[in-house]
Write the structure tokens for this entry.
Amino acid sequence: MTEQVAGAGEVRTEDGFDVARVAAWLREHAPDTEGLPEVRQFSGGASNLTFLLRYPHRDLILRRAPRGTKARGAHDMHREYRIQSELGAVLPYLAPMVAFCDDPDILGADFYVMDRIDGVIPRTDWPADVPLDPAQARRLCENFVDTLVGLHSVDPVAAGLADLGKGTGYVRRQVEGWAARFTNAHTDDVPALTDEIAWLLDHQPDDVANCIIHNDYKFDNVVLDRDDPTRVVGILDWEMATLGDPLMDVAGALGYWVQADDEDLMPLRRVPTHLPGMFTRAEFVERYCAAMGFEMDAQRWRWYEAFGLFRAVVIAQQIYYRYVLGQTTNPAFARLGEAVGVLGARLIEVVGEH
């Protein structure tokens, strides 16, 4: 337990829990968990809360839902636990699950514990002690895209997850659902985006397929090999995974993909997709669609680009809304209203090109 784990810091007061009680429960489910663990909290996430439990011979991860108002259907810890348990049997990027707990007397909410996947997690800035030249950055992007292709190629039946989604109509449900979430979380200091929402609803494409999608696939949700940081060894944060249209998964991923020439989006960058050698969004789409056999051109992709931007707007606005209501005191959320404005302006621009 000598090395520090990047991104893990002090537990915020509002997110604290009875460590002794959780440790006693954990001793019944996992070896090498004697005594009390050192507890740290990962600050990078903005939805479900993630904690590091450090024992002398083992590092574990605890996931639980945040306090405060929750979106309907979100933060289902048992669903998240089940997806990773089943998918881990057929895909080599899932952390081994340890145990799930639905006893409210332990932590006050459902939670689960899993092993920690050791490796490099790219966050806002690429780790200074991990070399990455332009050729490696390009190879990382290739592997990042190919890993997503691999996920989308998993047979849901073989994975035991055929019942995960709601069938066809995924695109429609997504547009309507994100539009409703934005309306419910809207604050007067951000744009209403009424015309843009109407355009997304009026021009939505049909589903192209129905497969297992991650729904939050980005660099800070993958773990890279320490010895070869171009290689993905883990995929994290499966809370929004479902059966759905794979192009919507790509659209969501590219909503976070700030490239080097995005002057307006650069202050919002959360992952290091701007580095020399990194794919542009167009290169990402081209490689992905070639591998999956989807016909695509720039004009057709613009709808998905707009949706990805709108989805990012709504995610930021929902978190900002919780901050405005005082349901979280995380200082990182204070400026998300400004982020909504910048992303909204880009969305207005993209929709206006049609």
